[in-house]
Amino acid sequence: MNHFTPVEQPQKHVALLIETSNAYARGLLSGVKSYIRRHRPWSIYLGEHSRLDTDLSWLKDWRGDGIIARIENEETASYIRELGVPTVDLSASRLLPELPCVETNNRTIGRWAADHLLERGYKHFAYCGDNQFAWSVQRGQYFGQRIAEAGYSCTHLHLAGRSSTLSERLGMAEWVEKLPKPTGIMACYDITALKLLEACRLAGVSVPEEAAVIGVDNDELLCNLSDPPLSSIRPDTLQTGYRAAHLLDEMMAGRPVEAGIHSIDPLETITRMSTDAIAVEDKYVSDAVQFIRQHAYEDINVEDVLRRIPLSRRSLDSRFVKALGRTTHEEIILIKMKLLTRLLAETDMTLQAIAERIGFKYAEYMSTVFKKYAGISPGAYRDRLNLPLK
Questions:
Q1: 3.30.70.60, 3.30.70.120, 3.40.50.300, 1.10.10.60: CATH of 283-384
Q2: CA nearest neighbour of 47 among 78, 88, 17, 90
Q3: Do 361 and 299 form a contact (C-beta atoms < 8 A)?
Q4: pLDDT single digits (tens) 258-310
Q5: CA dihedral sign of residues 382, 387, 388, 390
Q6: Cα separation of 113 and 193, whole Å?
């Protein structure tokens, strides 16, 4: 009897030229990890570098089989060209167009951001990006196109590189201050969006009442660390990294792979407080909403609002209903319920502790109000969040 002994394939050595300093890149790495766990493992070579780093000396003695890289400068492109090994690009810059490229769909991202702000009634729009990155330019173009289709115009601010100086913040603050209000702003990614929120604080521009800000990447640590928490579009980085790894595996096996762009759509738009408003041109309503948000953690009522707004309750309620479709009291409750939803999802605080945190005297009353708002009790809502995905 003949016994067939399969020939064990040598382990592939793959270099990853992907930074680890931001959520998007870490998501790509997770996608690569997911692929190699499901298939034959690779020997991974990952150096410490930034997105624009041109020092690839850590690859000097590397002799491997393939590369997955974000090729965003000419030096990296030249180095990879000289190596001559199978490579998959992860950058929209397309500095090596002969390579296959897996990239998040910037057209969809730009249009989703525009639709998110248009749905909230904004009529003035702006985009803040970084022209040294092709993906940022593309997002700004598609955002502006969608805004133009809706019959509006869009102002653009192009940052000079990755500076984080006070002068940059002051320049951004001056730009934000001059924008018509209220305005909806898309930032090219979350880190730029955080700079914008700081610029709004420096300029005395309230978020989201006067300027709504949305980012990209949904870096949950940054988005929830910011004040107010940042709305963001969540790209499918896991699928992007996974697809790149699959293509590289095909190339290393000698199978043909198309050199074009393999585009991956984003997953969803995550709404947080930085855009959680409806554009209101009525100054009294806008000021009242701003006051309510600023004091949402306190035990406030309509009388507290009226002490700041020189109108009768009937007149203010009439303006609220016209602008937002709800009364002043209903707005107070709505904002508190959104705070309660966040605390239920993001903390393990007791209901009594949450009630004290957001200005309810009694946890029982808070629970009754929440059940009317959400259709289920706070406890049931929290239990539902802990259910495994199916």
A1: 1.10.10.60
A2: 17
A3: yes
A4: 888 999 999 989 989 899 877 777 889 988 988 898 898 999 999 999 999 99
A5: negative
A6: 13
The CA-atom distances, in angstroms, between 80 and each of 59, 103, 252 are 10, 18, 15
Which CA distances in Å does 194 have to 136, 184, 214?
16, 15, 10
325-338 tens-digit pLDDT: 899 999 999 989 98
Please tell me the number of Cα atoms within 13 Å of 147 on its side-chain side: 26
Residues comprising the chain, all counted: 390
Angle between helices 328-346 and 363-374 (to 10 degrees): 100
SS (H, E, C) 98-131: CCCEEEECHHHHHHHHHHHHHCCCCCCEEEEEEC
Give the architecture (CATH level 2) of 13-104+237-267: 3-Layer(aba) Sandwich (3.40)
Which of 140, 276, 260 is closest to 211 using CA atoms? 276
Residue whose pair of structure tokens reads 């680890």 in the numeric block: 20
The residue whose two tokens read 């913040």 is: 169
Pairing of strands 183-187, 268-270: unpaired
> Alpha-carbon distance 138 to 124, whole Å?
20
106-235 is a CATH 3.40.50.300 domain: no
Q: Which amino acid is at 226?
A: S
For the record, the structure tokens of 81 come out as 């060209």
